[in-house]
Amino acid sequence: GQIVYSIAEETERGASVGNIAKDLGIDAATLSARKFRMITGSSKQYFNINASTGALSVNEPIDREQLCELKSVCLLNYELVLENPLELYRMEFKVLDINDNSPSFPLSEYHINMPEFLSPGARFTLPSAQDLDEGANSVQNYTLSPDEHFYLEMQIRGDGSKYPELVLKKALDREQQATHRLVLTAKDGGNPPKSGDVPVIVTVLDSNDNAPEFEHSVYRASILENSPSGTLVVQVHATDLDEGPNGEVRYSFSNTTSADLQRMFSIHPHTGEVTVNGVLAVQRPLLEMFIEARDNGAFGMSSTAKLLVEITDVNNHGPEITITSLSSPIPEDAVPGTVIALLSILDKDPGENGKVTCQISENLPFQLKPSLQNYYSLVTSELLDRELISEYNITITATDLGSPPLTTQKTIWVQISDVNDNAPVFSAEAFNVFVEENNPLGAFLYQVSASDPDIGENGRVSYVLRNSTVAGSALTSFLSMNLANGSIYAKRAFDFEQLRSFHFQVEAKDNGSPALSAAITVNVYISDQNDNAPAILYPTSQNGSIAVEVVPRLADEDYLVTKVVADDEDNAQNAWLSYHLAHSSDSTLFQLSPHTGELRTTRSMRSTDFLKHKVVVVVRDHGEPPLSSTVTVGILLADTLPQALPDFDDSGEPPPLLNATNIYLIVSLACVSFIFAAFIFFLAVVRL
């Protein structure tokens, strides 16, 4: 539970406050047994409890102002703890205020200075008294000692608090009475009331009835725009007929002078010298300032003079070039007069110093044209060609008319975009391709190449075979082409003997819109290979039989037996034929001409010569590698043509004793005999 007690501050020690046992319904006889104790957060123990009766009394007098200072309600909180069983009770003591403090003022006396020229009704705030008591015991009203020149009025602030004001009732005259001594008394509402007072000393000040006067109402000065800080502009002077502080003059800029000008210039408060204080960053040729001269009177009087400063311009600003608009890249087919950029050129200097001339290099296909005020247009003056020059760095030079002139340059980077104005160009007027016959299928033949100075899709070249026929067949049955790189491939094997050369056209086309193209003739020459053996035209054999030539029995030396005639479908050295005698049954009887193929006798025939002879003639070309054909000629020695030709399977000579077959049989027999002898030897060794 909780219980609240009220007690006046400064209550003497031992005074009864109440009975805690009775108020809380606790048996007082059990307080000691239950180990009661009071707990508080205060540094002092202001109350005691009688353990036998439960009586609550004052242990220490309470000073409310010290304990709670300016709080309107002053409370002390205690907790009563009992054990067996454990119980907790809250006690709250409300400390009541008594009128034990008198009103007091912060200072021992107050001084007020009043000029003698003040009219009745002038008000001056008087100090407020402080009373540490609260409520009705605090300050309630003020009184002023009687005086014919002053009276007291109470005023109320916005928060409801009151404060005293001293009101002038009658005009002052310093010559009659220079000082007035008053007493301000503050009273509280206690019973009995208490009060406090403070002396108020009013000093009447001499009237400052003369204002300073300038020598000139308007001052004029002229300075250069680039004058450094500290440069003297002008010195003003004013006089005041009063004496003492009322006659001492101080100079300053009037509040009507702009803050910017007050930062650019400074004025000495005593000498009146106006000097440059910083950079004269102004665009006006004439500056207007107001200078105030004020005396040092209590209520200083003042007068104002005008200062006109003419700023003489110097050429200290170069032209400023601003790119307002820029079109880049521009197409190379832009017509002359196309606007590329809009420039703003401005010079902050006035007059001639601010007039600007603008130009660019003469060797460029551009020109500057004046537009609106301070604006120029950069336009094309000639046709452009990106393939010659793909970009331009245009330097714009702006110069003012000052002395010396100032120049500013700005560079504009203009790119030229491509248009498809160039057709592909081949690297030659015609291409000659040489290919050997019997080429493999898909063999690379040649790569045509065309260039296009345009870029991007406009410069990307593709290749195509124009429709045509070769030897009565479509060109596409002979060749194929890579559209991207111009490589030409064979789709069939060429045969020199059937087709020695042909030509066709290749078209190169770019990917622009519209597309541009060019064509070129490609001549294909087929080279011969030694792919044909000589064909023997004479003598010929029929049904596999040997050609037979009849020679007189007793023919003379150098007798023409026959002439071997052959032909080769190849060309050049592949068709150059030579004749050779590969075999002859009698090498001393016949000879063969290597160039003509004529077979002649080397001597006169004899009666002892065999009647049948056989020769083998080889016809060889000069290709690489060489190819050859053979023909076998049977020669019959007879004076008349027999009714039946003999068999020329043998040459008419006795067969040799050792031919290849006989050698193989002899070797086989020797091997078998050797193996048999070795086996017999092995058996004999085993038996022994």
TrEMBL record:
Protein's GO biological process: homophilic cell adhesion via plasma membrane adhesion molecules
Which Pfam families does this entry report, sorted A to Z?
Cadherin (PF00028), Cadherin_2 (PF08266)
Q: Does the keyword rRNA-binding apply?
A: no
Q: Which domain of life is it from?
A: Eukaryota
Against InterPro entries, the record matches this protein to: Cadherin-like_dom, Cadherin-like_sf, Cadherin_CS, Cadherin_N, Protocadherin/Cadherin-CA
Enumerate the UniProt keywords alphabetically: Calcium, Cell adhesion, Cell membrane, Glycoprotein, Membrane, Repeat, Signal, Transmembrane, Transmembrane helix
Protein name (record)? PCDC1 protein
**Organism of derivation:** Cettia cetti
Q: Cite the source lineage.
A: Eukaryota, Metazoa, Chordata, Craniata, Vertebrata
Tell me the name of the encoding gene.
Pcdhac1
